Amino acid sequence: MTDIQGLPARRAAMQLLDAVLRRGQALEAALAGATRGIENSADRALAHAIASETLRHIPDLDDLIDSATRQRLPDDAKARMVLRSALVQALILGTPPHAAIATALPMLEGGPRRLVHGVLGTLFRGKAQLRAIPLLPPKVEDRWSKAWGHGMTGAASEALAAPPPLDLTLKNPAETDLWVEKLAGETMVPGHVRVGRQIGIVDLPGFEEGAWWVQNISASVPARLLGEGKGRSVLDLCAAPGGKTMQLAAAGWQVTAVEREERRLARLSENLERTHLSAELVTADVLKWEPRFPVDAVLLDAPCSATGIFARHPDVLHRIRVRDIAQLAEVQARMVARVADWVKPGGQLIYATCSLEPEEGEAVAEQAKKHGLQLVKPDPAQLPQGITAQEQGWVRILPGEGRDGFFIAAFTRS
Description:
Radius of gyration: 23 Å
Helix content: 40-55%
Number of domains: 4
Distance between the termini: 70 Å
Number of strands: 11
Largest sheet: 8 strands, mixed
Shape: globular
CATH topology of the largest domain: Rossmann fold
CATH architecture of the largest domain: 3-Layer(aba) Sandwich
Structural class: alpha/beta
């Protein structure tokens, strides 16, 4: 049975799902280990696609499975996981039903093969379909509806239906019209182009010459709020993969980029080399390191739950718990308190997270006022189309129109 074509990729997908759902590991972090020994890049991509699409549709997959069983399978039952995977292949990825069944049954050695075969047969004969707009996991739906209302959760479900479009940040905003034409895209603010996903990133015009880098429109806002550098000094903290570092360098700032993980800093270095931009790179933990002297600005893109990027990384919907959010919010508050003194009087501090949790945004921003920081409402001209500041002065970006969820607060130090 082990030599069935495509079976290694399906087994790798099961390992990925186990890593996310049982061990709370990020999907991308688990990918290398789960696909070790799979040499074919297409098979590695298939394993990733099965796992990612399963995570995108779990509530709907489970509704189908439960409709075809007399007794509900436990959430962590291997049979349920195999059924989810097989249904995703047939209903989303275009695998013929007989092939989805043939590659599912061998993964149930000693398990309920007849049950799984029967459930899949019933659903395929009945022309089962998934909802066009996926349901959010119930705990996430409840948490976000309490924080932001049902309009937001509806928009989040729509965003979950498919990966968002590709946003690019330009090294030279003055060339926006040129690159909109070359890339057959559209723009929402100078220095930004949005394109479709029908072509590989490295094959797009401008990649090799370093004219742009991939960066969601929301993620570009924190650096935009700092404006032109004119040779002034800025710390980009927790800087990898480097989109904000490159924005700041391109805008004329003298950038020191600090990142705890050397591996991620190496990727940032590669991005700088491709775009012909420069920054001083420091491998350090922000909570242990400090600069030699105060700087004109600090950009703290703090470590967070990353629930705002769920449309691209649906694993966060299933592995992030309330306790994780609380712990990360506490770390963010400690970081803001620590770095506040690194800003010169009159200088700027930007605090940002790619989170949709108020504990990792609004609550930390309120605490920041205790550290000699004054909230400054952004000039609307600095913000992309469709993004506005709240009455309190900060920017809260909710899902919709291809935007990641984000929180940004701009402060000056008194």
